[in-house]
Amino acid sequence: MKDIKQIIGENLRKLRELSGFTQEQIAKSIGIERSAYSNYEGGTREVPYDILERISNMFGCEPFILFEDNVQTDNEIMATAFRISDLEDKDLEEIANFKDIVKSYLKMERIAQHETE
Known about the structure:
The chain is mainly α. The protein is built from six helices and no strands.
């Protein structure tokens, strides 16, 4: 049975690979060393929640997706992933900022929908 570090690591790897990024690009974008990111992805180190938030902003997904181990999660990861080549560091930062805005908007929509029910 997989532990939570392994599940998170596998989901991080899936998101990164489906998006076409290297570990170095993701690590630099979220402000950590590549070796630390590699350990998170490998499931050998626990990922601090603030790092999970930065990663989820980078990929435009809710942090809880990273904790799930099922087919539904794989589908959400595939829907979140995007492939773009030749990105500069500034481009990655802007993409993460935009995805954070979209994520916040969708969260507000869900809250508003629950209030009207």
